[in-house]
Amino acid sequence: MKKKRKMGFAAAILAMVLLFAGCGQTETKTESSTAASETEDETPVHVLALKGPTAMGMVKMMSDNDSAETPADTFELAAAPDEVSAKLVQGEVDIAAVPANLASVLYNKTNGGVQVLAVNTLGVLYIVEDGDTVQSVADLKGRTIYASGKGATPEYALNYILEKNGLVPGEDVTIEWKSEHAECVAALAEDADGIAMLPQPFVTTAQTKKETLRTALDLTEEWNKIQESEGTASTLVTGVTVVRTAFAKEHPEAVADFMEAYQASVSYVTENTDEAAKLIGDYDIVPEAVAKKALPACNIVCITGDEMKEKLSGYLGVLKDQNPETVGGELPGDDFYYSE
Prior knowledge:
Layout: E1 4-6, H1 9-20, H2 29-36, E2 38-40, E3 46-50, H3 53-56, H4 59-67, E4 74-78, H5 81-89, E5 95-99, H6 100-109, E6 114-122, E7 125-129, E8 144-148, H7 153-164, E9 174-178, H8 181-190, E10 195-199, H9 202-209, E11 214-218, H10 219-230, E12 237-244, H11 245-250, H12 252-271, H13 273-282, H14 288-294, E13 300-303, H15 305-322
Parallel strand pairs: 3-4, 3-5, 8-9, 8-10
Antiparallel strand pairs: 1-2, 5-12, 6-12, 6-13, 7-10, 7-11
Helix pairs in contact: 1-2, 7-10, 8-9, 12-13, 13-14
């Protein structure tokens, strides 16, 4: 990932002064400027990602970095969002892949201390059932859905989709909340008529335990249908990649290099399922067999710039309407969205 990066203006001037101060050596200003125009930026980047889809897109650049004779950067995986938050706030990591709403919370908590570089994962929530009774959101009326994530973004995303389709959560649809995804999978295994809301790769995990399970609804598609009907352009977003604002200001070339390698990594992962699944298994993100089946449904992307802002800001706006605390109380300002 490390490449030649241009020196800052002040550094270039300093280099010229030192050259002119050499012992009797004389160089023209043109020669000095040329010699000092490029240098190796040795700034290491410390990257942290959550295990799961938000880390999958990085796996090729992780592998390339670790297999280099002298790894330029440091990659680390975390099991829980709290671990990522703490290290970002304390300045122990420079770039991190985090849940989309957590990025907004951290922005508000740190007074603009983080910026979003890219949307890395679109929605990964699905409605699954053992049968063929659910063809639309309307078919959920009168049913019970097993789900986890109460008080968090899965609940608010589900409520939004139900309400926009004329269904009242808790009245028209019963939601039985579980503490974790594995409990939903277990409930499905025991309930022949069960319906569950699960994220990938847990959908694939559930299907390995109960092969007759089918994906009935893609909640990202259902979200997009609502947006299209209302003439808006947000989407369901699972994860984003953020950078500490101070690091981005101090090392813009390092950030640019990271983003170039990151985009290439995402392209590799989305275009080479078998090879990417092996790397994902090697890094213990999820088992290789699960990754191979789940990758096409994980919606791994690298969306930047104006499109990132449009999709993410709209999504955060929906969450704020459901519960302002999910985004840290207020929607982030324009400086939340990184631009070169």
